[in-house]
Amino acid sequence: MLTILGFAMIATFLVLIMMKKMSPIAALVLIPALFCVFVGKGANLGDYVLDGVTDLAPTAAMLMFAIVYFGVMIDVGLFDPIVRGILKFCKADPMRIVVGTAVLAAIVSLDGDGSTTFMITVSAMYPLYKRLKMSLVVMTGVAAMANGVMNTLPWGGPTARAATALKLDASDIFVPMIPALLVGLLFVFVLSYVLGVRERRRLGVLTLDDVLEAEKETETVLVGSGGSGDGTVSMRTGAAAGTAGAGFGTDAPESAKDSAASGDGFQGLDPNRETLRPRLYWFNALLTVSLLTAMIMEWLPIPVLFLIGAALALSVNFPHIPAQRARLAAHADNVLNVSGMVFAAAVFTGVLQGTGMVDHMAKWMVDVIPGSMGPHMALVTGLLSLPLTYFMSNDGFYFGVLPVLAEAGAAHGVTPLEMARASLVGQPLHMSSPLVPAVYVLVGMAKVEFGDHTRFVVKWAALTCLVILGAGMLFGII
Fold first, then answer.
1. 220 in helix, strand or coil?
2. Comparing 94 with 14, which gets the higher pLDDT?
3. Does the structure show a pLDDT above 80 at 50?
4. Is 187 contained in some domain?
5. How many CB atoms lie within 10 A of CB 321?
C-alpha cells in the first residue's frame, strides 16, 4: 500500500505542476500533507516536516548566501569578461547562443556545485535570450543537462556517494567512466546545436544592431505641449520594459549610453552600471577562486563558506551600509523564492522518508527485477537510475537502493565497480528532479515555470542518460 501511495503522490505532484493547476510551492506542501493523512500518519506530519527541514536547512542556507555572493559578483562585473566572450561567439545567432549556453554550463560545472553553475549561466545568457525572444526553456534544459553530466565529477556528489556506499575508491569509479561521460557531453552539445538550429529557423539570424534597432522601433513617442513649449517623452512598451529579476539581467533595450533606466542591478550588456568595481576586479576574482577551492577541498561547510564570502564581498565592494542594503534588496526576490522552494521541498521529502514510502518503493523496484536479469544487473542499475534518482534524493538512491542492487549483482558475478559506474547514468535527468534545490535556482532566475521546464527537459535528459549508458556498455565500462 505504501508503495502505491508513494508513486501516486509523486504522480499527482508532477501532473498538477505540469498542468499548472498548482504552484510548485503549494504542491510540494499540500500534496504530501494530504497523502500523509491517507497513510494514517497525519499525527506525525509535524515530526516528518521538521525532520525534512532539518535535513535541508544547510542547503537552504547555502543557496541563500550563494545567491547573495554571486549576485554581488555579477553586480561588480566579475563575470563580464565571460559574458563578453560568450556574446562575441554567439553574434546574436540563436544556434550559437544555445551551444554557448551548453559550453558555459559545462565549464562552470567544474566547481561541482549546480547552484553556482545555474546562477552564472543564467546571468550571462538570460539578457540575450530575452532580447532575441528565444525560448527560455531551451536555455534551462540545455544548462540542466550539461550540468547533469558534469555532476558526476568526484567532488560533485554522486560519485562520492557511490564510492562511500560500496566502499570503493572514487577515482576507480570515475576515471574509467570518462569516455562514456564525454560521449554524453558531446551528445548534449550536438543536441544544443539541433535545438539552436530549430530556434534559428523560427527567429532567423540577426545582429545585435538589428535587435537594438527593432527594439527602438517599439518605443512609443508621446508628444505633448507644456507651458513653455513642446517636448517629447520616450516610453518603452511593456514587453521591452520587463526585467530579469533582481540583479540578474534585463530585457529592456538599454544601450551602453542608456544604462541607468532600471535600478535592479546587472544590466546584461550594459558596461556602465553604477555597481561596477573595476579596481577591485582581482580581489573579487581571488576571493571567488579561494571560495571555490575551499569548497572543493572541504575546508569548511559550504553554507559557512558562502556566508563568510557574502559578508566579505559586500563589505569590501560596498563599504557603506546604504549600498549594502541596496544590494541585499536587489537580490531579495531570488533569495526568497529559492529558499521558500527548498523548505517546501522539505515537506515532500520528509513525508516520503518518514512514512516509509521511499523504502517500500525502492524495495518494490528491486523485487520486480526478474531473476534472469541477474547477470545484467549493471544494465538494470543504469536503467533504474533514471526514475529512481528523479523520484528520490541522491542520498536515498546511493545509500538505500544501490547497496541492495550491488548485492544482487554480486550473486551473479557483477562487480561493485560496474554497479557503481552504472549508477551514475541517471544524473542528467536527476538535475531536473523536483527534489533538487538547484533546479529552483535555474527556473527561478530564468523566469520559467517549473512545469514547462519539466515537460521540455525530461525526454531529452532521459535520452542523454541512455546515450551514456550505451556508450558505457559499448566501451566495456559497464
1. strand
2. 94
3. yes
4. yes
5. 9
How far is 468 from 426, CA to CA, in rounded Å?
9
Is 306:65 a contact under the CB 8 Å cutoff? yes
Mean pLDDT score, 235-260: 33
Provide the grid cell at 119: 546562477
Give percent above pLDDT 90 in the chain: 29
**Looking at the domain assignment, is residue 424 inside a domain?**
no
pLDDT in tens, 391-425: 877 877 887 678 778 877 887 788 989 999 999 99
pLDDT in tens, 335-379: 877 777 778 878 887 888 888 887 787 778 677 777 777 788 899
Measuring CA to CA, how many Å separate 134 from each of 163, 269, 446?
Answer: 41, 17, 12
What phi and psi, each to the nearest 5 degrees, are found at residue 135? -70, 120
pTM of the entire structure?
0.67
Residue pLDDT, tens place only, 140-172: 999 999 999 998 887 667 887 888 778 888 788
Distance CA(368)–CA(148), nearest Å, equals 28
**Cα separation, 183 vs 202, whole angstroms:** 29
Residue written as cell 512609443? 220
Does some domain include residue 326? yes
The strand pairing partners of 222, in sequence order, are 233
- C-alpha cell recorded at residue 380: 538494470
Contact 317, 58 (CB under 8 A): no
How many angstroms separate the Cα of 342 from the Cα of each of 13, 140, 337, 345? 16, 19, 9, 5
Say what the alpha-carbon torsion angle 113, 9, 464, 160 is, to the nearest 10 degrees: 40
Number of separate domains in the chain: 1
State which H helix or E strand residue 226 sits in.
none
Per the listing, cell 525572444 goes with 133
Closest alpha carbon to 285 in 61, 82, 127, 68? 82
Distance (Å, whole) CA 342 – CA 440 = 8
Domain that holds residue 126: 1-11+19-204+321-358
Q: Which residues on adjacent β-strands are paired with residue 235?
A: 220
Report the candidate in 358, 352, 307, 333 with the shortest Cα–Cα distance to residue 440: 333
- Average pLDDT along the chain: 79
- Measured in degrees and rounded to the nearest 5, phi and psi for residue 235 equal -130, 120
Q: How buried is 330 (Cβ within 10 angstroms: 0-12 exposed, 13-18 middle, 19+ buried)?
A: buried
Residue 97 lies in a domain: yes
